[in-house]
Amino acid sequence: MTSRETSERCQDGHSCCRAVRRLLLALFVLFACANANSQSTPNLDSESEELVVLLRKYGFKVLFQHPPIRGAYGLFKSSTKTIFVSPHAYELGIGKQVRLHEAVHAAQSCPTGNLSVIGAKISTSSVVKREISGILYQSYDHANKSVEQEAFLIQGDPSAVSIIKKALVQRCKRR
Ligand SMILES: [Zn+2]
């Protein structure tokens, strides 16, 4: 191999390397952006942080990303023990409520995987009750109504986190 050939090969290799490097960098940036959009963990207060830690101890996954149902802000998938909270919920200022709502469903799913009411005694105004009934009437079928009603009632209660924690300890098995 002549020195000219070597130099051409090097140059060729070099530019190719640069192109590959540029492509990898672009892919990395793209991937990082996509990840930041779909998985960024919101700032949680210490009480909420504790609840997420506890949910994970009981084998639940808590993902801050779009649920696999179009237009949903939150979802609990019993089959995979996964809570989804959409970043849109945080943008709209309802992230905490959505997170608590889905955490209630997680506790309701113990011990069998089928959702059943926790039985927490929540007192609320008749206006809120009417509001919840309206949402349930429009959006949920009969079978889900009692568990949904309970999730809505607990998410709006000032002691929501401690109610959910207690239910997790009583109903769910630690991993
Ligand atoms: Zn629900």
Description:
The chain has 175 residues and is mostly helical. It has two domains: 1-38; 46-171, 2-Layer Sandwich (Zincin-like), CATH 3.30.2010. The chain contains seven helices and three strands; from the N terminus they run ααβββααααα. It has a three-stranded mixed β-sheet with strand order 1-3-2. A hairpin with a 4-residue loop joins β2 and β3 (82-85). α4 (95-108) crosses α6 (145-155) and α4 runs parallel beside α7 (160-171). The termini are far apart. Residues 1-17 and 23-38 have low confidence and may be disordered. The protein binds zinc ion (ZN). Zinc ion binds next to α4 and α6.
The hetero compounds bound to this protein are: zinc ion
Based on secondary structure, the structural category is mainly alpha
Q: How many separate domains?
A: 2
**Alpha-carbon Rg, integer:** 24 Å
What keywords describe this structure?
single chain, 175 residues, mainly alpha, Zincin-like, 2 domains, three-stranded mixed β-sheet, 7 helices, 60% helix, globular, binds zinc ion
